[in-house]
Write a structure and sequence with these properties.
The complex is a heterodimer of chains A (71) and B (170). Chain A has 71 residues and is mostly helical. In chain A, 59% of the residues lie in helices and 7% in strands. Chain A has one domain. Chain B has 170 residues and is α/β, with parallel strands linked by helices. The longest helix of chain B has 23 residues. The radius of gyration of chain B is 32 Å and the shape is elongated. The N and C termini of chain B lie far apart (78 Å). In chain B, 24% of the residues are buried. The chains are: A mainly alpha (71), B alpha/beta (170). Strand 1 of chain A pairs antiparallel with strand 6 of chain B. Chain B: This is Spore coat protein X. Chain B: Keywords: Capsid protein, Virion.
Chain lengths: 71, 170
Protein backbone atom coordinates (compact mmCIF):
# COMPACT_ATOMS: atom_id res chain seq x y z
CA UNK A 1 0.00 0.00 0.00
CA UNK A 2 2.30 2.67 -1.19
CA UNK A 3 1.18 6.08 -2.22
CA UNK A 4 3.55 5.99 -5.15
CA UNK A 5 1.69 4.90 -8.22
CA UNK A 6 3.53 3.20 -11.04
CA UNK A 7 4.71 -0.22 -11.94
CA UNK A 8 6.86 -1.88 -9.30
CA UNK A 9 10.26 -3.20 -10.22
CA UNK A 10 10.25 -6.76 -11.40
CA UNK A 11 12.62 -9.36 -10.11
CA UNK A 12 15.20 -9.97 -12.84
CA UNK A 13 14.33 -12.96 -14.98
CA UNK A 14 17.83 -14.26 -14.51
CA UNK A 15 17.23 -14.69 -10.78
CA UNK A 16 14.02 -16.59 -11.35
CA UNK A 17 15.64 -18.71 -14.01
CA UNK A 18 18.50 -19.67 -11.72
CA UNK A 19 16.16 -20.38 -8.86
CA UNK A 20 14.07 -22.78 -10.92
CA UNK A 21 17.07 -24.47 -12.55
CA UNK A 22 18.80 -24.91 -9.23
CA UNK A 23 15.71 -26.34 -7.55
CA UNK A 24 15.22 -28.84 -10.35
CA UNK A 25 18.88 -29.80 -10.43
CA UNK A 26 19.17 -30.28 -6.69
CA UNK A 27 16.25 -32.66 -6.76
CA UNK A 28 17.85 -34.69 -9.48
CA UNK A 29 15.34 -33.94 -12.20
CA UNK A 30 16.57 -34.38 -15.72
CA UNK A 31 14.71 -32.01 -18.00
CA UNK A 32 15.35 -34.14 -21.05
CA UNK A 33 13.39 -37.00 -19.50
CA UNK A 34 10.54 -34.73 -18.52
CA UNK A 35 10.12 -33.09 -21.91
CA UNK A 36 9.05 -36.25 -23.71
CA UNK A 37 6.46 -37.12 -21.09
CA UNK A 38 3.95 -34.42 -21.94
CA UNK A 39 1.37 -35.06 -24.58
CA UNK A 40 0.46 -32.35 -27.08
CA UNK A 41 -2.92 -31.94 -25.42
CA UNK A 42 -1.33 -31.37 -22.03
CA UNK A 43 1.08 -28.87 -23.53
CA UNK A 44 -1.76 -27.00 -25.14
CA UNK A 45 -3.78 -26.94 -21.91
CA UNK A 46 -0.82 -25.70 -19.90
CA UNK A 47 -0.03 -23.10 -22.51
CA UNK A 48 -3.56 -21.73 -22.34
CA UNK A 49 -3.43 -21.75 -18.55
CA UNK A 50 -0.24 -19.74 -18.47
CA UNK A 51 -1.47 -17.30 -21.08
CA UNK A 52 -4.66 -16.75 -19.14
CA UNK A 53 -2.83 -16.14 -15.88
CA UNK A 54 -0.37 -13.82 -17.62
CA UNK A 55 -3.27 -11.74 -18.87
CA UNK A 56 -4.80 -11.60 -15.41
CA UNK A 57 -1.56 -10.55 -13.78
CA UNK A 58 -0.86 -7.92 -16.41
CA UNK A 59 -4.34 -6.55 -15.98
CA UNK A 60 -3.89 -6.41 -12.24
CA UNK A 61 -0.48 -4.76 -12.33
CA UNK A 62 -1.19 -2.26 -15.05
CA UNK A 63 -4.72 -1.29 -14.14
CA UNK A 64 -5.40 -2.14 -10.55
CA UNK A 65 -8.93 -3.17 -9.79
CA UNK A 66 -9.70 0.05 -8.07
CA UNK A 67 -12.59 1.65 -6.43
CA UNK A 68 -13.08 5.25 -7.11
CA UNK A 69 -15.18 7.48 -4.99
CA UNK A 70 -15.96 11.08 -5.39
CA UNK A 71 -16.61 12.66 -2.08
CA UNK B 1 12.58 -64.44 41.30
CA UNK B 2 10.36 -62.50 43.56
CA UNK B 3 6.74 -61.93 43.13
CA UNK B 4 5.33 -58.96 41.32
CA UNK B 5 3.61 -56.41 43.45
CA UNK B 6 0.81 -54.21 42.44
CA UNK B 7 2.01 -50.60 42.61
CA UNK B 8 -1.28 -49.52 44.03
CA UNK B 9 -2.35 -52.03 46.67
CA UNK B 10 0.84 -54.16 46.99
CA UNK B 11 -1.08 -57.29 46.13
CA UNK B 12 1.46 -60.00 45.29
CA UNK B 13 1.27 -62.23 42.32
CA UNK B 14 3.65 -64.58 40.50
CA UNK B 15 2.69 -63.26 37.15
CA UNK B 16 1.91 -59.71 36.33
CA UNK B 17 -1.60 -60.11 35.10
CA UNK B 18 -3.20 -57.50 33.04
CA UNK B 19 -4.98 -55.98 36.00
CA UNK B 20 -4.52 -56.53 39.68
CA UNK B 21 -7.03 -59.01 41.01
CA UNK B 22 -7.69 -57.00 44.10
CA UNK B 23 -7.74 -53.38 42.99
CA UNK B 24 -7.85 -53.68 39.22
CA UNK B 25 -4.75 -51.50 38.79
CA UNK B 26 -2.50 -52.34 35.86
CA UNK B 27 1.02 -51.44 37.04
CA UNK B 28 3.33 -53.96 38.65
CA UNK B 29 6.75 -53.70 40.17
CA UNK B 30 9.35 -56.17 41.28
CA UNK B 31 11.14 -55.01 44.39
CA UNK B 32 14.27 -57.13 44.40
CA UNK B 33 15.38 -56.49 40.94
CA UNK B 34 17.49 -53.68 39.61
CA UNK B 35 16.62 -54.32 36.05
CA UNK B 36 15.14 -51.43 34.24
CA UNK B 37 12.56 -53.71 32.82
CA UNK B 38 10.85 -54.46 36.08
CA UNK B 39 7.79 -52.42 35.45
CA UNK B 40 4.85 -53.71 33.62
CA UNK B 41 2.53 -51.26 32.15
CA UNK B 42 -0.07 -52.66 29.87
CA UNK B 43 -1.73 -49.42 29.10
CA UNK B 44 0.99 -47.94 26.91
CA UNK B 45 2.07 -50.69 24.60
CA UNK B 46 0.42 -49.45 21.49
CA UNK B 47 2.40 -49.93 18.33
CA UNK B 48 3.97 -46.66 17.33
CA UNK B 49 3.54 -45.35 13.85
CA UNK B 50 5.71 -42.51 12.76
CA UNK B 51 4.28 -40.48 10.00
CA UNK B 52 5.96 -37.54 8.45
CA UNK B 53 4.39 -35.92 5.49
CA UNK B 54 5.87 -33.27 3.29
CA UNK B 55 3.39 -30.64 4.29
CA UNK B 56 4.86 -27.23 4.21
CA UNK B 57 2.75 -24.22 3.75
CA UNK B 58 3.28 -21.34 1.55
CA UNK B 59 2.10 -18.96 4.15
CA UNK B 60 1.65 -15.50 2.92
CA UNK B 61 0.47 -13.54 5.84
CA UNK B 62 -0.70 -10.22 4.81
CA UNK B 63 -2.37 -7.49 6.66
CA UNK B 64 -3.40 -4.17 5.35
CA UNK B 65 -4.85 -1.40 7.38
CA UNK B 66 -6.07 1.61 5.66
CA UNK B 67 -7.65 4.63 7.16
CA UNK B 68 -8.59 7.65 5.16
CA UNK B 69 -10.05 10.47 7.14
CA UNK B 70 -11.60 13.32 5.28
CA UNK B 71 -12.90 16.25 7.21
CA UNK B 72 -14.27 19.63 6.24
CA UNK B 73 -13.24 19.17 2.64
CA UNK B 74 -14.75 19.14 -0.78
CA UNK B 75 -14.01 17.63 -4.17
CA UNK B 76 -11.78 14.83 -2.84
CA UNK B 77 -11.13 11.79 -5.01
CA UNK B 78 -9.96 8.54 -3.41
CA UNK B 79 -8.68 5.60 -5.40
CA UNK B 80 -7.49 2.49 -3.55
CA UNK B 81 -6.73 -0.98 -4.85
CA UNK B 82 -8.74 -4.03 -3.96
CA UNK B 83 -6.33 -6.46 -2.35
CA UNK B 84 -8.79 -9.33 -2.29
CA UNK B 85 -8.63 -9.70 -6.06
CA UNK B 86 -4.88 -9.96 -5.79
CA UNK B 87 -5.09 -12.73 -3.22
CA UNK B 88 -7.26 -14.92 -5.43
CA UNK B 89 -4.92 -14.29 -8.33
CA UNK B 90 -2.04 -15.42 -6.17
CA UNK B 91 -3.83 -18.63 -5.23
CA UNK B 92 -4.49 -19.26 -8.92
CA UNK B 93 -0.80 -18.87 -9.68
CA UNK B 94 0.20 -21.19 -6.85
CA UNK B 95 -2.18 -23.84 -8.09
CA UNK B 96 -0.86 -23.51 -11.62
CA UNK B 97 2.74 -23.95 -10.46
CA UNK B 98 1.81 -27.02 -8.44
CA UNK B 99 -0.15 -28.41 -11.35
CA UNK B 100 2.66 -28.02 -13.85
CA UNK B 101 5.13 -29.67 -11.53
CA UNK B 102 2.69 -32.48 -10.85
CA UNK B 103 2.01 -33.12 -14.54
CA UNK B 104 5.56 -32.76 -15.77
CA UNK B 105 7.56 -34.34 -12.98
CA UNK B 106 4.81 -36.50 -11.57
CA UNK B 107 3.41 -36.75 -8.10
CA UNK B 108 6.62 -38.27 -6.82
CA UNK B 109 8.81 -37.38 -3.90
CA UNK B 110 10.99 -35.43 -6.30
CA UNK B 111 8.05 -33.49 -7.64
CA UNK B 112 6.77 -32.70 -4.18
CA UNK B 113 10.20 -31.55 -3.11
CA UNK B 114 10.45 -29.20 -6.07
CA UNK B 115 7.02 -27.71 -5.40
CA UNK B 116 7.85 -27.34 -1.74
CA UNK B 117 11.11 -25.55 -2.40
CA UNK B 118 9.60 -23.20 -4.90
CA UNK B 119 6.78 -22.22 -2.59
CA UNK B 120 9.19 -21.73 0.25
CA UNK B 121 10.57 -18.75 -1.59
CA UNK B 122 7.24 -17.05 -1.09
CA UNK B 123 6.90 -17.32 2.64
CA UNK B 124 6.60 -13.76 3.57
CA UNK B 125 4.81 -11.73 6.06
CA UNK B 126 3.72 -8.30 5.30
CA UNK B 127 2.02 -5.64 7.27
CA UNK B 128 1.04 -2.40 5.75
CA UNK B 129 -0.53 0.36 7.67
CA UNK B 130 -1.52 3.64 6.25
CA UNK B 131 -3.42 6.59 7.48
CA UNK B 132 -4.39 9.55 5.43
CA UNK B 133 -5.91 12.66 6.90
CA UNK B 134 -7.46 15.30 4.74
CA UNK B 135 -8.67 18.28 6.64
CA UNK B 136 -10.05 21.56 5.43
CA UNK B 137 -9.01 20.95 1.83
CA UNK B 138 -10.36 21.19 -1.66
CA UNK B 139 -9.61 19.34 -4.92
CA UNK B 140 -7.54 16.52 -3.41
CA UNK B 141 -6.74 13.38 -5.38
CA UNK B 142 -5.63 10.33 -3.40
CA UNK B 143 -4.35 7.18 -5.11
CA UNK B 144 -3.15 4.17 -3.10
CA UNK B 145 -1.80 0.94 -4.59
CA UNK B 146 -0.71 -2.24 -2.91
CA UNK B 147 2.63 -2.50 -4.67
CA UNK B 148 4.13 -5.19 -2.45
CA UNK B 149 1.47 -7.65 -3.40
CA UNK B 150 1.84 -6.79 -7.06
CA UNK B 151 5.53 -7.61 -6.90
CA UNK B 152 4.75 -10.95 -5.29
CA UNK B 153 2.23 -11.82 -7.96
CA UNK B 154 4.60 -10.85 -10.72
CA UNK B 155 7.32 -13.00 -9.19
CA UNK B 156 5.01 -15.99 -9.10
CA UNK B 157 4.08 -15.47 -12.72
CA UNK B 158 7.76 -15.27 -13.61
CA UNK B 159 8.37 -18.60 -11.87
CA UNK B 160 5.43 -20.15 -13.65
CA UNK B 161 6.68 -18.96 -17.03
CA UNK B 162 10.24 -20.07 -16.27
CA UNK B 163 9.01 -23.54 -15.36
CA UNK B 164 6.90 -23.81 -18.46
CA UNK B 165 9.74 -22.69 -20.71
CA UNK B 166 12.12 -25.18 -19.12
CA UNK B 167 9.62 -27.97 -19.54
CA UNK B 168 9.27 -27.06 -23.19
CA UNK B 169 5.56 -26.37 -23.05
CA UNK B 170 5.57 -23.03 -24.82
Amino acid sequence: MSDLPGKPKEIPNKVIDLLVSDTLRRNGINLENVKGKLSDEQKQALKELVEDLTKQVDAFVDQPNSTKKDL
Amino acid sequence: MSNWKCVHCKYESENPYKNCKRCNYNRWEQEESNLENNHWNFSSHDDATILQDGGQFSSVDQESDELIWIKDSCNVTVQSTDTQAAVSLQVGLQLAIALIISIAIGDTIQGQAVAQEIFQQFNDEQTNKQKIYVDNSKDVNIVTTDTDLAVNIEAMLQILVALVVKLDVL
